[in-house]
Amino acid sequence: MRKPIIAGNWKMYKTLEEATQFAEEVKGLAPDPEKMDAVICSPAPYLAQLVQVLDGYPVAVGAQNMHYEDEGAFTGEVSPVQLKDLSVQYVIIGHSERREYFNETDEAVNKKAKAALKYELTPIICVGETLEEREAGNTEKKVSTQVKAALEGLNDSQVKQSVIAYEPIWAIGTGKTATAEDANEVCGAIRKTVAELYSDETAQAVRIQYGGSVKPENIDELLSMEHIDGALVGGASLKSDSFAKLLEAG
Ligand code: PEP
C-alpha cells in the first residue's frame, strides 16, 4: 500500500507573517502520519521558520527548487547541503514553471534529483505535457521521456524514495483539472515506464501525485484512482482551511 502524499506549492506567495500564521493554523490539523504525508513547499526565505514552527508536527517542509552542486559561485542559488542543514525534507524538482521560465532542462532535473537523494531530501519530480502535446496525442510519449531522463542513473532504492508528480501544464493554475480517469491513465503510464526501467516492485512502490487545479472538491475522486497517490497543489494550498481539507481526503 502506498501512503498518499499531499504537498502544497506556495510558489512565490506569502510574507513571513502569513507563512508563520499558516503553519500555526495547520499544525494541529495535520493528518495521521501513518495514513498520509503532508508537505508545505515554501519560498526559500521562510524554510527555516516553517521548520521551527512545525517541529514535532506531522507536516514536513519542502523547497521549490535547488541547485545540484553542494556549494560554489552560483549567485542566488540554494544548495542541497543548505536545505539539509535547515532540516528541510522535500524539494520540488523540474516544476513546469521552472522548465518554462528558467530554462530547466531534463539534464538539470536529473542532476538535481541525484543531488537531492544524495542528501536524503525527497525529490518531487514534476513531469507533464502542454495542451498542444495532449491534442497531438503525445502525452504519454512526452511524460515517459521526461521520466526516463529524470531517473537516469538512479538505483531502485532511490526511485522508491522519490515522488513523481504528473502535472499537465494546461491544468496548472487554470482551474482546468484533468478528469480523474485521464490523470489516472497518465499516472499508470508513468508507473509502466518505471516498471520497464526498473521492476514491477519498484513501480508499485514509487508514489505518483497528480497536480493541476486540485482542490477540496476534487481531491477525493483523484485519490480514489489506482495510480494516483496524492497531489501537488498550488492555489488551494495557500489558505490553511482549504489545505486542511485536502489533508482530510482519502
Ligand atoms: C502547482 O503549482 O504545481 C499546481 C498544480 O498549481 P495549481 O494547483 O494552482 O494548479
TrEMBL record:
Function statement: Involved in the gluconeogenesis. Catalyzes stereospecifically the conversion of dihydroxyacetone phosphate (DHAP) to D-glyceraldehyde-3-phosphate (G3P).
Domain of life (superkingdom): Bacteria
Annotated family: Belongs to the triosephosphate isomerase family.
Stated name of the protein: Triosephosphate isomerase
Name of one Pfam family that matches: TIM
Catalytic activity: D-glyceraldehyde 3-phosphate = dihydroxyacetone phosphate
Matching InterPro entries: Aldolase_TIM, TIM_sf, TrioseP_Isoase_bac/euk, Triosephosphate_isomerase, Triosephosphate_isomerase_AS
Gene3D superfamilies per record: Aldolase class I
EC top class named in words: isomerase
Pathway: Carbohydrate degradation; glycolysis; D-glyceraldehyde 3-phosphate from glycerone phosphate: step 1/1; Carbohydrate biosynthesis; gluconeogenesis
Gene: tpiA
Subunit structure: Homodimer.
EC number: 5.3.1.1
PANTHER family: TRIOSEPHOSPHATE ISOMERASE (PTHR21139:SF42)
Chief place of localization: cytoplasm
Cellular localisation: Cytoplasm
